[in-house]
Amino acid sequence: MIEKSPLAEFTDQVAVVTGGGSGIGRAIAVRYAAGGGNVVVGRRAEPLEETARMIEDFGVSAAVVTCDVRDADALTAAIDGVAAEHGRIDAMVNNAAGNFVCPAENLSPGGWRAVVDIVLNGTFYGTRAAGRHMLEAGRGAILNVIASYAWHGHPGTVHSAAAKGGVLAMTRTLASEWGGRGVRVNCISPGPTETEGAGAALWPTEEDRRRVLGSVPANRFTTPEEVAESAAFLLDPRRAAYITGDVLSVDGGQWLGKVIYSDSSARA
Ligand SMILES: CCCCCCC/C=C/C(=O)SCCNC(=O)CCNC(=O)[C@H](O)C(C)(C)COP(=O)(O)OP(=O)(O)OC[C@H]1O[C@@H](n2cnc3c(N)ncnc32)[C@H](O)[C@@H]1OP(=O)(O)O
Ligand SMILES: NC(=O)C1=CN([C@@H]2O[C@H](COP(=O)(O)OP(=O)(O)OC[C@H]3O[C@@H](n4cnc5c(N)ncnc54)[C@H](OP(=O)(O)O)[C@@H]3O)[C@@H](O)[C@H]2O)C=CC1
């Protein structure tokens, strides 16, 4: 449950969140609204309508655009439309992703392309479109959602890890390119989070779930709301004003690597 933020840190601001109809994207969108910001969320209409209702409960405006992030022209037109309507874009959250577990030697070129197109290319299209408006205004924050296997790797994730690694490189590059022009670019890296998409795609069995949990020192999954609170910090133009080109891991220590903590005696 996300409650109204006493900071009201996004009052009169505008955010675009891709993949805002479920999981982490929905929680970030709602948390932005809880801070007083207006939010535009994208892709399938039905789940987005529910997100829009949750946003409007905070007395701010919500808009839904049904747009696939792989379609650069459609995404650019949607983002230009947001800027024209609201006169500003303060935050762009590139959260949309596709994922599944597949051994690299079995992954088809089509499977590789599906994930790289959504994660790496979609993030660039969204960043470029929103970035242009932010650069013109001389302010803005871009937040890209990655995963720690971007640097430590994980079996079965070659497509996603390569794409997220590319997003990390893009983040650092644009932070250096746009830092002097008022636009901050950062990543957030959630640990295993119970969401509609992740559970079914990544830990479908109890055994998979236990293995994933064993890679998290904190010994628990996180929640979309917990991730969204950290996202709000990075998007806040006051508290995070001097943070750019960085990654905030919200993963119970999973980024530390492949240490398996499933033996409880090792925890004592
Ligand atoms: C394991 C470690 C866990 C710890 C960390 C967790 C990190 C979590 C990261 C996340 O990203 S969670 C987010 C998960 N959410 C989603 O994935 C939701 C969205 N998903 C999708 O849209 C699909 O899964 C998609 C496949 C990525 C894209 O859908 P689309 O409809 O565009 O594609 P298709 O036409 O169905 O397939 C395209 C292509 O991909 C091949 N493919 C699809 N699924 C699989 C699979 N399970 N295994 C192997 N290959 C698959 C499919 O065959 C097509 O290839 P070609 O036939 O064209 O060669
Ligand atoms: N859950 C986890 O454990 C972790 C997640 N992450 C990252 O967090 C982010 C959110 O994941 P999560 O909430 O778990 O996953 P979900 O599957 O719940 O959400 C993914 C969202 O992406 C949208 N999406 C997928 N493909 C496209 C596309 N082509 N165009 C536009 N939107 C699209 C989906 O929209 P639609 O519903 O319309 O298909 C959906 O809203 C992702 O970037 C993921 O990689 C990172 C680490 C861990």
UniProtKB/TrEMBL annotation:
Its main location: other. InterPro entries: NAD(P)-bd_dom_sf, Peroxisomal_t2-enoyl-CoA_red, SDR_fam. It is found in: Peroxisome. Pathway: Lipid metabolism. Interacts with PEX5, probably required to target it into peroxisomes. It catalyses: a (2E)-enoyl-CoA + NADPH + H(+) = a 2,3-saturated acyl-CoA + NADP(+); (2E)-hexenoyl-CoA + NADPH + H(+) = hexanoyl-CoA + NADP(+); (2E)-decenoyl-CoA + NADPH + H(+) = decanoyl-CoA + NADP(+); (2E)-tetradecenoyl-CoA + NADPH + H(+) = tetradecanoyl-CoA + NADP(+). This is Peroxisomal trans-2-enoyl-CoA reductase. The keyword Phosphoprotein applies. Its EC number is 1.3.1.38. It holds the Pfam family adh_short_C2. Participates in chain elongation of fatty acids. Catalyzes the reduction of trans-2-enoyl-CoAs of varying chain lengths from 6:1 to 16:1, having maximum activity with 10:1 CoA. Has no 2,4-dienoyl-CoA reductase activity. Keywords: Fatty acid biosynthesis, Fatty acid metabolism, Lipid biosynthesis, Lipid metabolism, NADP, Oxidoreductase, Peroxisome, Phosphoprotein.
